[in-house]
Amino acid sequence: MTNSLFFWLSKLIWMVIRPDFLLVAFAVIGMLFWFSGAVETAKWILACVVLVMIIITVFPVGRLLLAPLEHRFPTNPALPEKVDGIIMLGGAESNRLTQMWRQPEINSAADRYIAFARLVSAYPDAVHLFTGGSGSPMHQEWKDANTARQVFMDMGLDTANMIFEDQSRNTYENGLFAKRLVHPEPGQAWVLVTTAAHIPRSVGVFNRLGWPVIPYPVDHVTRPDRKIALGLNFSGNLGRLVMAATEWTGLAAYYITGKTNTLFPSDRSER
C-alpha cells in the first residue's frame, strides 16, 4: 500500500469509526427507526446510546486505555552525555487558527514545545529537528512546521540552526522524511519528543525504519500511580476515549500494514 493510499484510507476509515461519531450515528439511526414506526427497535438503540453515554460520563474508560500507552516507556529517561540529535514530532499545532489569527496557536500538547526547548538548551551542539507537515486532507498548505517555526522564534530559540521537515502527513512519514533529511548513523543517540500516549507507535515507526531513538514522553493524561477516580465528566472522558482509540487503532493499522514490526512496540521491540 502506497503512503498516499494509506493516508487517505486511514482518514476516511477513522472518520466513521471514532467513538464520538459512532455515538451520534447510532442516536440518529435510533431516531430514524422511531420516525419510521419501528418504535421498539428505536427504544433499544437509543437506550444503548444513553447507557454508553452514562458509562463514559462516570467511568474514565479513556484513561484506562491510555494508561498502558503512557507507561510503556519511562518518563524523564536518563540521557547520555552526548546527544547527536533531538526530534520533535508535529501535532501540537493548531494550524487553521494560526492562519486565521496570524499568530502561532498551539493545542493541549504544548508540553512537547517545553520539553524540546529544554533539550535544545541542554544539548546546543545536537541536531535540532522538527518534523511535521499537514495531516489535513483538504488543507496541505497548513503546515505544522510553519507554526512551529513561529513558536520557536517567539520562545527565543535560534531557528536558523534547526531543521524543519514539512512534507509528512502522519507518524510514519514523520520518521521516513526526517531520516532522509539527516541521515542518522549507527550508534548515534537521538532523542524523540512527543506525547506519551503517542510514544509507542512513534518508537515502532523509527525502529521499523532502522533508526533507534531514545523516547522522551511528555504531555501525560494519566497518573503515575495509575489510580482512576470516578466522576461526572462526559466531555473530558469522551475526549480521552477518542485519544485512546486513535492510538490503539493506529498501532493496529501500522502493524498490519508493516509500518511497525510489533503490535505494541517497546524498548525491546525488534529493530
What would your notes on this structure say?
The structure is a single chain. With 271 residues, the chain is α/β, with parallel strands linked by helices. It has a domain of 146 residues: Rossmann fold. Helix content is 51%, strand content 9%. The protein has ten helices and five strands, in the order ααααβααβαβαβαβα. It has a five-stranded parallel β-sheet with strand order 3-2-1-4-5, with helices on both faces. The protein is elongated, with a radius of gyration of 20 Å. The model has no long low-confidence stretch (mean pLDDT 95).
Question: What labels would you give this structure?
Answer:
9% strand; membrane; 271 residues; alpha/beta; 10 helices; YdcF family protein; Rossmann fold
Can you summarize this structure?
It is built from ten helices and five strands. With 271 residues, it is an alpha/beta fold.
- Give a short account of the largest sheet: 5 strands, parallel
Q: Any idea of the CATH class of the domain at 75-220? A: Alpha Beta
Overall form: elongated
Radius of gyration based on Cα positions: 20 Å
Which sequence of strands runs across the widest sheet?
A: 3-2-1-4-5
What do the pLDDT scores average to?
A: 95
Helical amount: 40-55%
Count of helices? 10
Provide the low-confidence segments as ranges: none
**SS content category:** alpha/beta
CATH topology of the domain at 75-220: Rossmann fold
Reading the helices and strands in chain order gives: HHHHEHHEHEHEHEH
